[in-house]
Design brief:
This protein has 534 residues and is mostly helical. The protein has 3 domains: 146 residues, no CATH class; 269 residues, no CATH class; 37 residues, no CATH class. The protein is 50% helix and 0% strand. The protein contains 21 helices and no strands. The longest helix is centred in the middle third of the chain and has 31 residues. The protein is globular and about 85 Å long. The protein starts with 7 loop residues before the first helix and ends in a 10-residue tail after the last helix.
């Protein structure tokens, strides 16, 4: 079993088996419990050969190539440790160094006898790459290697992180799933509101249609909110440009926002949420299981009328993390090692994700995991701690923003061609009967390989698309992208509302708690938009 389980499809099959047969199991450490049985067989093997001694060299038994292996193994590991004290204790023993790993420095630990031969140029090279360690120092601590895997593969390891978050944060686990806060005597389980027809898949309107709509809307939202922020910051600095109080507007913003009917200039965050709920779906908003997906309490949060409420179910609905007493206190070392820097965890997960490339739900789990990170932060430190985490992400986001600025202001092929022609005395910016519609593009037929793709296709430099204009003005801002990813999250769960119960099935955390945290982030993020100075 240990040698065959590393196939990605088999890892996902085991992951689904554990999730299915562990739901609502309170005593998970019983000898017959699924997590106990599979954990006894695989936990040590995963931690030693798929985390600590893994390599990126293809063909070896511990290879992380292709990346699908990383996702499948860490997803399986996440299901093994979720709310299971025994497997979490094994993980902690490896993290604190109580397990001797010196035996993993032998060649047999990386190149097992059943491993197929590598296609390399010489026997010397084959022997060289078989000598461990291949992707770590010889006596490197396990915790350091694990942190490197998580930071390097934030998206692929997000389900593992989510399992750790909910398993080590008391006060989030609940008996029932509820949709709205505050919880009253009239609160019912969300599963009771789901009809049979609403539980089936969305076979009429597919994901690309929804995400295309959300992408267009969220692009307009960012442009509108960014202009408001730019004007507000200009007022604070006392540097308004012009007597009518109008601040600088980046080039092409009107093309980014799309039709005027799409979004009112006076639209609020609440109006934006209502637009996201109207994504294409086989059910209209009124026909869905939760027609009032956001209620008045949610509106008060996103509009700033009230602060973020305490995160977590009321005491009569709360469920302890483990069936045994005092288990959480003995796992504090995992929290000290893995959760001491939430900003880096968040940046590692969201950094590789781009809202413009969201065409399916494949990576939406990463956004959900980030909401869980903020839910833990808010549970332990309150609303102010959420803002502090966003502040601490700024230095990391600034690095990527500066790289984007360098690329943005780099001289393009078209501009270089224009400059060369001007130095030669040509200075003609038209090609035949075609005028140049964009001042940044000045190709001519004689530019050869320097001609842009638009010139080759249309015979002239075509205007930039809405996506290109958005990227030119706001593409380098981590917080703008994070705001748009939250829009994707709202568009998905607001339309496909059956997944509200699926999320509870995977985490046992009420959807209302995640929704409140998301709304608070939705309200805060525009204040962190990184904008060019007027």
């Amino acid at each position: 079993m240990r040698t065959a389980v590393w196939k990605p499809w088999l890892c996902h099959a085991l992951e689904g088996y554990l999730r299915c047969f562990s739901f609502w199991v309170r005593r998970r450490t019983l000898p017959a419990a699924p997590q106990k049985i599979v954990g006894d067989v695989l936990m040590s093997s995963i931690l030693e050969h798929r985390v600590y001694n893994a390599t990126y060299v293809p063909g070896l038994s511990g290879s992380l190539f292709p990346s699908k292996r990383i996702e499948s193994v860490f997803s399986l590991l996440g299901e093994l440790v979720r709310y299971h004290y025994g497997n979490l204790k094994i993980l902690q023993d490896y993290i604190v160094g109580d397990v001797d790993l010196s035996h993993l420095n032998g060649s047999h630990s990386t190149a097992l006898p059943h491993t197929r031969q590598l296609h390399v140029g010489s026997e010397r090279m084959e022997q060289l790459i078989r000598l461990p360690p291949l992707d770590r120092e010889e006596h490197e601590p396990f915790a350091k290697v694990l942190l490197r895997r998580i930071s390097r593969h934030g998206c692929d390891t997000n389900l593992f992180l989510r399992s750790l978050l909910i398993s080590l944060t008391p006060g989030l686990r609940s008996k029932i799933n509820y949709m709205w806060k505050p919880v009253t005597d009239d609160t019912v389980d969300a599963r009771e509101l789901l009809s049979v027809s609403s539980r089936v898949g969305d076979i009429v309107t597919c994901c690309p249609n929804r995400f295309s709509y959300v992408g267009t809307c969220s692009r307009s939202f960012v442009v509108l909110l960014a202009e408001r922020q730019r004007k507000a910051r200009a007022l604070v600095r006392g540097g308004m440009t012009g007597g009518d109080g109008a601040a600088h507007t980046p080039e092409g913003v009107s093309s980014v926002t799309g039709p005027a009917s799409l979004l009112s200039p006076d639209a609020t965050l609440w109006d934006m949420l209502q637009m996201l709920l109207r994504v294409p779906h086989r059910y209209s908003v009124e026909e869905r299981p939760f027609p009032q997906f956001f209620d008045d309490y949610d509106r008060a949060i996103v509009m700033g009328s009230i602060d973020l409420p305490p995160v977590g179910p009321p005491p009569h609905l709360a469920v302890p993390l483990f069936s045994e007493e005092g288990c959480h206190a003995s796992l504090v070392r995992i929290e000290e090692v893995l959760f001491q820097k939430p900003p880096e965890l968040l940046y590692g997960i969201l950094g590789p994700l781009h809202a413009e490339r969201f065409h399916s739900t494949g990576r939406l789990c990463g956004v959900t995991t980030c909401i869980f990170v903020f839910a833990r932060v808010a549970r332990l430190g309150g609303a102010s701690a959420v803002r502090d985490v966003l502040e601490n992400i700024k230095p990391l986001a600034r690095v990527g923003y500066e790289k984007w600025r360098e690329h943005r202001y780099a001289t393009s092929h078209c501009a270089r061609g224009k400059k060369r022609r001007e130095s030669e005395g040509a200075g003609n910016n038209s090609v035949g009967d075609h005028s140049v519609p964009d001042s940044r593009c000045h190709c001519q037929a004689g530019d050869g390989t320097l001609r842009c793709s638009s010139f080759l296709l249309h015979g002239h430099c075509a205007p930039r698309s809405a996506v290109a204009l958005y990227h030119m003005n706001y593409g380098g801002c981590f917080f703008c992208n994070m705001f748009r990813l939250l829009c994707c999250w709202v568009g998905h769960y607001g339309a496909c509302q059956r997944y509200v119960e699926t999320l509870f099935y995977c985490t046992e955390v009420p959807f209302a708690e995640l929704k409140c945290v998301m709304l608070y982030l939705f309200r805060l993020l525009p204040d962190f938009f990184m904008l060019e100075a007027p």
